[in-house]
C-alpha cells in the first residue's frame, strides 16, 4: 500500500497509473512516458522544488488526459522524471494530478471501496445529519495538536499522516519527547530522514485522531503542518476546495 491515491488514467490513448496530489501546484507527466508517446518535450525550463531538494522540469506539449467516464482535458503539461516515484509505488507512474486541475473540481474519495468521483467544483453538496462539514479558510483548517491550536493543510499526495513544519515543531514538542527517525523518498529520488514523535493527539472539526508526527524542513506562512491521505483513508470524503469545504460522509 503506497499510502496515497493511485488510480488509472488515459494519456494520449495509453492507460497509465496516476497519483492524485492536491499539494502539487501543477499536473506533471513523466518525461519518459511523454517521449514514448512521441510528445514534444521542450528543454528544461526550470526546477520543481521538493521537500528537501529540487528536480528539473520541462514543458510537454499536446497532452490529452482522460479519467474514463469522468473528465477529459488537453493542453501543455509540466514534465518531470517520475522514475523515483514509480520505484516506491512498485508501478510505472505516468502522471501526478495536481491542483491546477483539481481546483476546478470536486472529488469524492472512497479508498476502502476503491472508488473516486470527479465533478465540476461545487457539484457535490450532501445534506444529511450524518455528514460532517469541515470549513476551511483559504484551504487551511483549524484544529489542535498536542492540545494547542494548530493550522493544517490537507496534502493527499503525502503518505505521512502528519507532517509538522520545523518552524512550528517547538510549539508542540519538547526536547524530552521520545523521537525516532524515519526514511522516505521525494520526487527527485532523494532519500531523507525525518524526526518522528509517535502517538500525537490531533483534533479538527470534531474529529479526534492519534497520529505519528514527522518533522519537515519546509516553511509555509500561516500553516503549522499537513494532514496526509492516511488520515482520510478509512473515510468517504468529498473535497471541494473552490468553496473551502471538505465533507466527511458516515
Terminus-to-terminus distance: 24 Å
Class by alpha and beta content: mainly beta
**Count of extended strands:** 20
Strand content: over 45%
Spatial sequence of strands, sheet with the most strands: 1-2-8-3-7-6
Mean of all residue-level pLDDT scores: 90
What's the order of the H and E elements? EEEHEEEEHEHEEEEEEHEEEEEE
| Largest beta-sheet details | 6 strands, mixed, barrel
Overall 3D geometry?
globular
Give the proportion of residues in helices: under 10%
Question: How are the elements arranged and paired?
Answer:
Elements: E1 5-11, E2 14-20, E3 28-30, H1 31-36, E4 40-41, E5 46-49, E6 54-67, E7 71-80, H2 83-89, E8 93-97, H3 99-102, E9 105-110, E10 115-120, E11 132-135, E12 141-145, E13 148-155, E14 162-165, H4 166-172, E15 180-185, E16 191-204, E17 207-216, E18 225-228, E19 236-240, E20 245-249
Parallel strand pairs: 2-8, 3-7, 13-18, 14-17
Antiparallel strand pairs: 1-2, 1-6, 3-8, 4-6, 5-6, 6-7, 9-10, 9-19, 11-20, 12-13, 12-16, 14-18, 15-16, 16-17, 19-20
